[in-house]
Amino acid sequence: MALSFIAEEITTPPVPSATVMVVRDGAAGLEVLMVRRHGNAGVLGGAHVFPGGKLDPTDAVDDAGALDLPPEDCARRLSEPGLPVADAVALHVAALRETWEEVGLFIGHGPVAEAEHRTLAARLDGGHSWPQAMASLGRVLPVSSLMPWSRWVTPRRPSVSSRRFDTRFFLAVAPAGQTALHDGHEATEAVWLSPRRALERFWDDDIDLAPPQIMSLMELARLPGVGAARAYAAARTPPLIEPHPFDRDGCRVICYPGDPEHPVPQAAWTGPTRLTRRRQRFEPDGGLAALLD
User: Which of 18, 39, 80, 212 is the most exposed place for a label (fewest CB within 10 A)?
Assistant: First the structure.
């Protein structure tokens, strides 16, 4: 397995999107939910990713009472000067919506009856927006359950996708009493993995991972459990990651903040600051150990 390599420059602007790293404490420590994208998907087909997708116009919220936080808090939490409050709210809503659509989880809620899932699906099919459908069920939008983690902006030379994305990564705790199930369309598998195990499977060519997932899993692998992951997210400003690609010795290299070749000198994490395309995938100098040390 290998993700397709994109060499040409992409001139279209990045698409706003949101993705959620749903985590739980397992028998051996922290686990994160990953879905395998359908092999025919136009973006990262066959790869294991975190649930998520692009922002939809219907993610806009007109009634502040539909949220469990003031709208201004959504913008404050993302720490992006100049980002309109309405856009910050919509990104949080997109994260909640996409997680339900892809894996059937109501983030921020307790057990949910199957009848409620069916009713929500019917309301959406009937033309309701996600905020409207949730309000009709008497449920608020628990944006406080999402902890901003990072922001990734695909460069003009994106390497593994023919589209550019401006993606906010969130951390969320797996809701109690709910079971993650893949949708069978966009995703063909939903699996809980320790970050270390996910990286080991990637290294063994058992699963495909795109660079943002590789580096995010590397960060998670250094954290022992949900409490530590939440504390880590709360203690930092979500970093802006704008990968800087270049070619060297016939290989594509992607470098990140803190790398000598990157314009931002401050590293965004502890660990490798570049990935090089070898063996039809991107990997760090130093191999698997560099991601897990």
Answer: 39
